[in-house]
TrEMBL record, chain A:
<keyword id="KW-0001">2Fe-2S</keyword>
<keyword id="KW-0560">Oxidoreductase</keyword>
<dbReference type="Pfam" id="PF01799">
    <property type="entry name" value="Fer2_2"/>
</dbReference>
<dbReference type="InterPro" id="IPR001041">
    <property type="entry name" value="2Fe-2S_ferredoxin-type"/>
</dbReference>
<dbReference type="InterPro" id="IPR002888">
    <property type="entry name" value="2Fe-2S-bd"/>
</dbReference>
<dbReference type="InterPro" id="IPR036884">
    <property type="entry name" value="2Fe-2S-bd_dom_sf"/>
</dbReference>
<keyword id="KW-0408">Iron</keyword>
<dbReference type="InterPro" id="IPR012675">
    <property type="entry name" value="Beta-grasp_dom_sf"/>
</dbReference>
<dbReference type="InterPro" id="IPR006058">
    <property type="entry name" value="2Fe2S_fd_BS"/>
</dbReference>
<keyword id="KW-0411">Iron-sulfur</keyword>
<protein>
    <submittedName>
        <fullName>(2Fe-2S)-binding protein</fullName>
    </submittedName>
</protein>
<dbReference type="InterPro" id="IPR036010">
    <property type="entry name" value="2Fe-2S_ferredoxin-like_sf"/>
</dbReference>
<dbReference type="InterPro" id="IPR051452">
    <property type="entry name" value="Diverse_Oxidoreductases"/>
</dbReference>
<dbReference type="Pfam" id="PF00111">
    <property type="entry name" value="Fer2"/>
</dbReference>
<keyword id="KW-0479">Metal-binding</keyword>
<feature type="domain" description="2Fe-2S ferredoxin-type">
    <location>
        <begin position="4"/>
        <end position="80"/>
    </location>
</feature>
Length: 159, 289
């Protein structure tokens, strides 16, 4: 069967690609598009390592078909830093060592940014519930949660 | 994987035409949080995937002229949560929809998908049953409606006729003093499948229940409307005797399975406990409306 042609926007730039109808968005990002920040952990929407933003909403790219990207706006971890300037969450994760092996980190950062955009002053409970779909096999949850709360406080202070 | 075709029609007529033409070899794609997992596991291998999210009627949230709501079948949990008025009118339906999966799953998963998946444990279904939601279906022979409780036919099965698509849910207008709630029992605090789920919808006038509906999930092959529980509540001021009678009606309606998540005895007992807790929340909310 002929491949499908898809025109979309990724990290603010127009992008076109060819895909099989059953390809997942994650397959396309990591394959043809060379954006390997999103990771495949489970492939069933449980682990959150493949988290991206689709039209401003957090989704698992493993549970999205690549042709669904047609006409939509996608944001990935690759668009989070502005050039050499890290996003405050990225900076704080480094400072507070809120990661171990790093596989879950791109997904955790995407999810955390989505939270702070909606709720600049979350409670610890709200952070934990929001991030419940991001699994960390290194069990680094405490440092992650603390780094998100700390970033939120700093961003509020800076605003 | 065999060859698959993906289409995203912008009209319902086009979707229904393609669905009928595929003669059972097509699957409808809403949020995909069940379908894509099933495809990956090899449980289903559709020849055609019909994405209904470009159809306005399937993705809209509308307030009806009568004062109710019409929800497109493919509305995501996140979109429903962001609506400025839906959660005030139907907090129980909203909390039930929002309990399905993680933040990421909420970005895509829909009440229509939850219903069509046919799980007796689908969280949104008991709340929709309690709400008195009516579903609109459309197929090659036209449009029809049915009460949501008539839709499931058994685990993984529905009463959709061949070629029919679930289009929307219609929720009735809200009289003053009305509200709803949904509670489920799960062994952990988040991201799990209900062992028992209870939806309660109440209307109170000066503390007396004038209307009630109770939906019960995960304790029978399909989600149940427990009319006997509603009857026990209507006319009462939610005294202990009325609550116990409604709880007993829920326990009596249970026909659960024994599995690793819960035994028959446990699920039956919890159904009664949850009924009382859910009524308390719905009544407290109704008192404020």
């Amino acid at each position: 069967m002929a491949k499908m042609h898809v025109a979309t926007t990724i990290n603010g730039e127009p992008e076109e690609f060819l895909c099989e109808p059953h390809d997942s968005m994650l397959d396309l990002l990591r394959g043809a598009l060379g954006l390997t920040g999103a990771k495949e952990g489970c492939g069933t929407g449980d682990c959150g390592a493949c988290s991206i933003m689709l039209d401003g909403r957090l989704v698992c790219s493993c549970l999205m078909l690549a042709p669904e990207a047609e006409g939509r706006k996608i944001d990935t971890i690759e668009g989070m830093a502005q050039g050499e300037t890290l996003h405050p969450l990225q900076q704080k994760f480094l400072e507070m060592a809120a990661l171990q092996c790093g596989i879950c980190t791109p997904g955790v950062l995407m999810a955390s940014r989505a939270l702070l955009e909606r709720n600049p002053d979350p409670t610890e409970t709200e952070v934990r519930f929001w991030l419940a779909g991001n699994l960390c096999r290194c069990t680094g949850y405490d440092k992650i949660v603390r780094a998100v709360l700390e970033t939120a406080a700093e961003m509020r202070g800076a605003a | 994987m065999t060859e698959i075709r993906y289409i995203a029609p912008s009209s319902l007529e086009e979707a229904i035409g393609a669905y009928a033409a595929a003669a059972g070899a097509a699957r409808i794609l809403a949020g995909g949080t069940d379908l894509l997992v099933q495809m990956r596991a090899g449980v289903v291998s559709p020849g055609t995937i019909i994405d209904i999210k470009k159809i306005a009627e399937a993705t809209g949230i509308e307030e009806t002229p009568e004062g109710g709501f019409r929800l497109g079948a493919a509305v995501s949990g996140a979109a429903l949560a962001e609506h400025p008025r839906f959660g005030q009118a139907w907090p129980g339906v909203l909390e039930a929809v929002n309990l399905i999966g993680s933040t990421q799953v909420q970005g895509r998963a829909s009440p229509g998908g939850n219903l069509c998946n046919g799980s007796p444990a689908g969280d949104s279904v008991p709340a929709m049953v309690a709400a008195g939601a009516v579903v609109t279906l459309q197929g090659p022979n036209g449009r029809r409606t049915m009460p949501v409780e008539a839709f499931p036919a058994g685990p993984g099965r529905t009463n959709l006729a061949p070629g029919e698509i679930l289009v929307s849910f219609t929720l009735p207008p809200r009289p003053k003093g009305s509200s709803d709630a949904y509670l489920r029992m799960i062994p952990r605090t988040e991201m799990d499948i209900a062992v028992v789920g209870v939806g309660v919808n109440l209307t109170l006038e000066n503390g007396t229940v004038t209307a009630a509906r109770v939906g019960l999930g995960a304790v029978a092959p399909t989600v149940l409307l427990v009319e006997a529980a509603a009857k026990a509540l209507i006319g009462s001021k939610l005294e202990e005797a009325a609550l116990e009678a409604a709880a007993e009606a829920c326990r009596a309606a249970c026909k659960p399975i024994d599995d690793k998540r819960g035994t028959i005895v446990y699920r039956t007992k919890v159904a009664g406990v949850l009924l009382k807790r859910t009524v308390a929340i719905a009544a407290e909310r109704a008192g404020r409306n």
